[in-house]
């Protein structure tokens, strides 16, 4: 299909076509990409894909991640400290209960031991009296020196 001479001229297409940029405007901004022409404020600021902007974005993201990690580590340390404190105090409470029970058991054993020693002493005293009585009433005693 042959092209007509009228179509080869640079007549502006319809205004709805986003690809049309007048030649005069292209010659003025030859170094700017089309996105810069569409958004004039981006001409003075770096583009998102420019290395300095990308580096600053990555640095900001790394800084935010580091801040989150520090905050998480601080929270974790506080949690561990609280768990240790709880373990110590609950451990001390149960330890105190165990000590009190052990003191009571040992006190009962001491009372039982004292009663047993008292009874053994009484039995020994009674046995000694009996032996003395038997010795003094016995015929065979040590010779007297009269």
UniProtKB/TrEMBL annotation:
Keyword hit for Chaperone: no
Signal sequence, renumbered to the chain: none
An example molecular function term from Gene Ontology annotations: transcription coregulator activity
Compartments it resides in: Nucleus
Record Pfam families: Med22 (PF06179)
Compositional bias segments (type: Low complexity): 1-19
Protein name per UniProt: Surfeit locus protein 5
Cellular component GO terms held in the UniProt record: mediator complex
Keyword annotations from UniProtKB, A to Z: Nucleus, Transcription, Transcription regulation
Natural source organism: Panicum virgatum
Domain of life according to the entry: Eukaryota
Region (Disordered): 1-20
Keyword Transport tagged: no
InterPro entries attached to this UniProt entry: Med22
A single GO BP: regulation of transcription by RNA polymerase II
